[in-house]
Write a structure and sequence with these properties.
Number of helices: 7
Strand content: under 5%
Helix content: 55-70%
Shape: elongated
CATH superfamily: Tetratricopeptide repeat domain
Number of strands: 0
Distance between the termini: 67 Å
């Protein structure tokens, strides 16, 4: 009886991992962070093996493309353990975090990707995240500094310059 109950429970849990259609994924609107170059074409069929990195990567991409960010995050984290020297899962995890506004986590993920492979796109995305973090820190400092502090005026001017420079 216990085996039947466990088997039923696991089949229900695994049914949430059914293949998702990939139609239209390439045209999905995404955040303006750089994406890695695909050196190898995606395999046409994936073996249904939950420990196979190719299978897990495909599931992560499907979950991300369908807006299931928490599921995608879990798969990408699993990939970082299965492929500890591969930069790609860390890069994609950084993109996922950046799209969610989790900038500290994005910065850490991009740094992990760079530790594994020196890549200009990863460096670009890290720079974008750091700029956003810096602007946020300057805004916070400006609100906390006393109005009589010279640093407050300097911070305001720096923020104004940064924001004017960033505007087209």
């Amino acid at each position: 009886m216990l085996r039947l109950l466990l088997a039923t429970t696991f089949s229900v849990i695994l049914s949430g991992c059914a293949p998702l259609p990939v139609v239209g994924v390439e045209t999905a609107v995404r955040s303006p962070v750089a994406q890695p170059d695909r050196a190898d074409p995606a395999p046409t069929t994936q073996p249904a093996n939950p420990t196979n990195p190719v299978f897990i990567e495909e599931r992560a991409r499907q979950a991300d493309a369908t807006g299931r960010r928490d599921v995608a995050e879990g798969y990408y984290l699993q990939l970082t353990r299965l492929k500890p020297n591969d930069a790609a899962p860390w890069f994609r995890l950084g993109n996922l975090y950046a799209e969610q506004g989790r900038l500290d986590s994005a910065e850490r993920a991009y740094r992990e990707a760079l530790r594994r492979r020196d890549d200009a796109k990863t460096l670009h995305n890290l720079g974008l995240v750091q700029v956003k973090l810096g602007v946020g820190a300057l805004r916070e400092a400006q609100t906390r500094l006393p109005s009589t502090d010279a640093a407050r005026q300097e911070t305001r001017e720096l923020l104004q310059t940064l924001l004017e420079t960033a505007s087209p």
